[in-house]
Amino acid sequence: MSKVVLGDRLMKALLIFVAVECIWIVPAALYLKFGLFKFFYHDLLGWHMPIEDESYDGVSFTSKCRYCGKEIIQDSQGNWF
Ligand SMILES: [Zn+2]
To answer: Minimal CA–CA distance to 79: which of 38, 51, 37, 46?
Structure first.
């Protein structure tokens, strides 16, 4: 009985987690692909977007932000800042 309850709670937690992920990821994917919601992601969260040509300085990839022209580098997780 207690196993069933635990499984039920786990399923609910998992569903909530998946729902939150979907809500979060869809606009983020739209931003990364089409530059939508630029104000929120770029201006508020600081997600810079590299221009096409990236260069490698021996340590990290560097590029320029396509929106604000700032010099940005990519960290080991693939994020630009
Ligand atoms: Zn930028």
So the answer is: 46
Structure confidence by residue, pLDDT tens digits, 5-51: 778 899 999 999 999 988 888 998 999 889 899 999 999 999 999 98
Rounded-to-integer distance, Cα 26 and Cα 59, Å: 32
**Separation of 71 CA from ligand 1 center, angstroms?**
8
Residue 54 has which token pair?
A: 């990236």
Q: How far is the CA of 72 from the centre of ligand 1 (A)?
A: 8
Retrieve residue 38's tokens. Answer: 């630029």
Beta-ladder partners of 17: none
Question: Ligand 1 center to residue 23 CA distance, Å?
Answer: 24
For the question of whether the overall pTM of this predicted structure is more than 0.70, the answer is: no
CA of 20 to the centre of ligand 1 (A): 26
